[in-house]
């Protein structure tokens, strides 16, 4: 187009915009809702990341941390740590049973104990109730050392400050409730409430001895001139093979950051699906607006306006409105998190620093503008091809020709750019690509469904089913007729319901997976830290307890897999498989056996002789070995208690972790671990209702032994899933809200058609009740069709996520599916009835005269 043509197009566009926003309210709402959802999620994520960066040292407990598994630092390691720090703090973390005896009846609860020194905490502060310095609380009273405990433990054991609590064989005075610990976020998954004590006070408790399960962390406050990167490299070079794990304040909370990034990325993908729903509304609004401007377009073409000029006029108008919609969405997306910051922070387990962040807003704006452009081009490109003669002959019908090939190619290219950007900006590239493919597939399926519903409605309108039922025949005729709202309703409602159906299927399957993975006969308790000299007595007491149906025991050590065939284990596995593996993340249980344990199935290789006394041999879990690229004969180095042990893989065996029994990835011949200090673990199977008496019997005799309830652990996982599912459901609800707004828009756009239809029907004798019934049936049919497609698409998406992302079985969940169909029919019915009043009350004569 020439410059004069562009100026003329701009003048005409400006004049029409001055006429108001009639027909574009739905456009603005759809665009604003989608952008606001993405901007809000991004703003909260950035606020959390800023909070984690600001409080990095406090959350980690130091500028850097060196961690050892089940041992304290050696003299050499301690000397190096002290030499490179201004201040050094040692923290010991382990599980234990807390015993309270307030009324002569001992009550026990599993706790997570943190032993600290006088330097703790290096950064931040501990909040107690009643308020007092931590050092004063840990000093104790009345000749007993002190401790502080989380309120949950106080509630569970009915304790109050001043009461006595026993850990192992040591009594402590409860001095205060622990309200906040600065480094609590970095703690590992806890199965019990937190207790803090002085490490020195644990010396007589029998809880920290060689072979028991505990971790030590050495937190460093570094001098200002320290180079954290160089120091970390030096620590790894010196002590990695000794089992040292190093973290510093550059990424002190990797698991938290990873969880926040992945959850927010997933929610952004849900938001993009909502934006796609909004895009359908954008397209419908533009198409409706263009239909209303048919006479204007015809007049412009009659006086010589070219198709390009028409296209430019309405693209400019819609571009201005798109900027307004995106701007409104950005204001909402940035303002809502800031406005509700106190409420959000109170629910977050991590610090957040709310403010105005440009990156998430720019990302949301990009998504919004691209979506508006993609869904606007199609109806505008069709309007560009409208011929003036055809317009004047029929001003009620839009041209149904497809856009030209270059516009179709442009739309496809823009969609590709949007998908590529979402994939690049997301931390889950695989899920982003499949989500985009899923949205496109669902849109295609919904378009096919709309065509199928129209075809079926036309057939049924003339069948015996509709004979004698005029309201049904009118509804089927309207659904199957040309134009109408079939496609708009099916698309807008169907995509929103699909997102909700997918979330429902994934949520129910995650919960179902937990229940399916629990065997019919699961252990009641895991017992850990059983000393070798306690094992026989433990077995006798357990077998004599009422309700105990079985018991399994095994020697237990912990080790870190450091090398494979002489190479760094992580590098070796990445080179073999292209990715890391969970076996290499932290320490793993290690055991030994002279003969295969009961039920062992050897899948490859041979078991060693019972009296074998040669070089160390290793039995590895077959599935994990295959995933890591291991072969029979490979040499694996495991660091156990600070010492390297290199063993040759002799066989692969089948390990079923879901049976919740005693299972180990690595099992060695007894001679390989001869002389290594260790403890035993046991799983006890018992009838429901006897757990309390069993715990009292064993806890009283062996106070150092820790019992972990399987049922309570499962409850914790379920609660975590509840929180995750709630966050995802909020995102899905926003998408569904957008779909309902689009549905309202489709109903509003079709109101003019229904006014004319009602006028004709009244003229031939139809009553208001019959007309209303036909409108209601029409909406219910379209809503049911959208719900049916949503069930199919949601089921397929749920299957894909469970099968390829979660790597577990998928079971179709019918209850939520039926609710989706009912909800779709109800939503469409409500939207249709909202705009049924005007057609019902319009006078036929006035309406029909206006059509002359």
UniProtKB/TrEMBL annotation:
Domain spans labelled ABC3 transporter permease C-terminal: 270-386, 733-841
Subcellular location(s) per record: Cell membrane
Keyword set, alphabetical order: Cell membrane, Membrane, Transmembrane, Transmembrane helix
GO CC annotation, single: plasma membrane
Main subcellular location of this protein, as a coarse class: membrane
Membrane topology: Multi-pass membrane protein
The UniProt record lists the keyword Iron: no
Segments traversing the membrane: 21-44, 263-290, 311-344, 364-381, 407-425, 431-453, 730-750, 771-797, 817-837
Organism domain of life: Bacteria
Full protein name: FtsX-like permease family protein
Organism: Halovulum marinum
């Amino acid at each position: 187009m020439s410059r004069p043509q562009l100026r003329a197009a701009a003048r005409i566009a400006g004049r029409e915009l001055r006429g108001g926003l009639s027909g574009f309210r739905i456009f603005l709402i759809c665009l604003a809702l989608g952008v606001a959802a993405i901007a809000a999620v991004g703003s909260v994520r950035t606020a959390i990341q800023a909070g984690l960066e600001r409080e990095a040292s406090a959350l980690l407990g130091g500028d850097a941390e060196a961690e050892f598994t089940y041992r304290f630092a050696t003299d050499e390691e301690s000397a190096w740590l002290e030499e490179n720090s201004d201040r050094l703090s040692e923290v010991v973390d382990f599980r234990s049973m807390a015993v309270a005896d307030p009324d002569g009846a001992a009550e026990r609860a599993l706790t997570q104990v943190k032993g600290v020194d006088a330097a703790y905490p290096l950064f931040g502060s501990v909040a107690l109730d009643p308020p007092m310095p931590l050092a004063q609380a840990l000093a104790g009273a009345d000749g007993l050392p002190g401790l502080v405990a989380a309120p949950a433990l106080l509630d569970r054991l009915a304790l109050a400050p001043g009461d006595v609590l026993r850990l192992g064989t040591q009594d402590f005075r409860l001095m205060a409730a622990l309200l906040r610990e600065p480094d609590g976020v970095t703690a590992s998954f806890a199965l019990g409430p937190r207790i803090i004590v002085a490490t020195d006070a644990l010396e007589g408790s029998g809880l920290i001895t060689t072979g028991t399960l505990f971790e030590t962390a050495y937190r460093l406050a570094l001098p200002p001139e320290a180079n954290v990167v160089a120091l970390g490299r030096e620590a790894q070079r010196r002590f990695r093979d000794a089992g040292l794990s190093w973290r510093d304040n550059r990424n002190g909370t990797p698991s938290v950051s990873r969880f926040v990034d992945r959850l927010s990325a997933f929610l952004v993908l849900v938001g993009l699906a909502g934006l796609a729903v909004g895009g359908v509304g954008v397209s419908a609004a533009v198409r409706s607006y263009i239909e209303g401007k048919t006479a204007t377009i015809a007049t412009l073409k009659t006086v010589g306006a070219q198709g390009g000029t028409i296209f430019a006029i309405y693209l400019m108008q819609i571009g201005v409105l798109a900027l307004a919609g995106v701007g409104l969405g950005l204001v909402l997306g940035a303002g809502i998190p800031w406005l509700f910051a106190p409420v959000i922070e109170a629910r977050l387990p991590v610090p957040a620093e709310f403010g105005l962040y440009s990156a998430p807003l720019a990302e949301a704006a990009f998504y919004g503008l691209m979506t508006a452009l993609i869904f606007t081009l199609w109806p505008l490109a069709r309007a560009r091809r409208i011929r003036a003669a055809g317009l004047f002959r029929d001003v009620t019908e839009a041209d149904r020709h497809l856009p030209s090939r270059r516009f179709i190619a442009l739309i496809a290219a823009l969609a590709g750019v949007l998908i590529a950007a979402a994939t690049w900006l997301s931390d889950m590239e695989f899920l982003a690509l499949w989500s985009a493919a899923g949205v496109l597939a669902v849109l295609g399926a919904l378009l096919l469904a709309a065509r199928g519903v129209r075809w079926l409605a036309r057939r049924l309108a003339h069948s015996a089913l509709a004979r004698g039922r005029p309201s049904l025949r009118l509804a089927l005729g309207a659904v199957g007729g040309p134009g109408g709202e079939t496609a708009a309703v099916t698309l807008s409602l169907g995509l929103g319901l699909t997102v909700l159906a997918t979330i429902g299927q994934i949520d129910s399957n995650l919960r179902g997976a937990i229940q399916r993975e629990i065997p019919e006969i699961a252990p009641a308790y895991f017992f850990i830290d059983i000393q070798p000299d306690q094992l026989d007595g433990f077995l006798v007491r357990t077998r004599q307890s009422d309700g105990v149906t079985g018991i399994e025991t095994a020697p237990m050590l912990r080790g870190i897999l450091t090398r494979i065939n002489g190479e760094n284990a992580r590098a070796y596995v990445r080179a073999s498989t292209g990715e890391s593996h969970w076996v290499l993340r932290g320490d793993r249980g290690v055991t030994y056996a002279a003969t295969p344990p009961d039920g062992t199935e050897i899948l490859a290789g041979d078991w060693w002789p019972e009296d074998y006394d040669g070089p160390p041999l290793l039995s590895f879990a077959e599935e994990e070995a295959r995933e890591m690229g291991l072969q029979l004969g490979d040499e694996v180095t495991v660091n156990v208690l600070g010492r390297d042990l290199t063993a040759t893989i002799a066989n692969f065996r089948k390990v079923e972790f879901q049976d919740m029994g005693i299972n180990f990835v690595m099992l060695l011949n007894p001679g390989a671990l001869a002389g290594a200090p260790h403890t035993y673990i046991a799983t006890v199977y018992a009838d429901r209702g006897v757990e309390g008496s069993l715990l009292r019997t064993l806890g009283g005799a062996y106070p150092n032994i820790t019992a972990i309830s399987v049922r309570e652990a499962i409850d914790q996982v379920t609660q975590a899933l509840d929180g995750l599912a709630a966050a995802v459901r909020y995102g899905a609800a926003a998408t569904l809200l957008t779909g309902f707004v689009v549905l309202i828009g489709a109903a509003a756009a079709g109101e003019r058609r229904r006014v004319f239809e009602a006028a004709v029907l009244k003229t031939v004798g139809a009553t208001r009740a019959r007309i209303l019934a036909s409108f209601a049936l029409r909406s219910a049919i379209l809503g049911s069709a959208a719900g049916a497609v949503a069930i199919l698409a949601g089921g397929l998406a749920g299957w894909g996520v469970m099968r390829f992302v979660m790597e577990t079985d998928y079971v179709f969940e019918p209850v939520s599916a039926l609710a989706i169909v009912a909800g779709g029919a109800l939503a469409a019915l409500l939207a249709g009835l909202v705009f049924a009043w005007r057609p019902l009350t319009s006078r036929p004569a006035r309406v029909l005269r206006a059509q002359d």
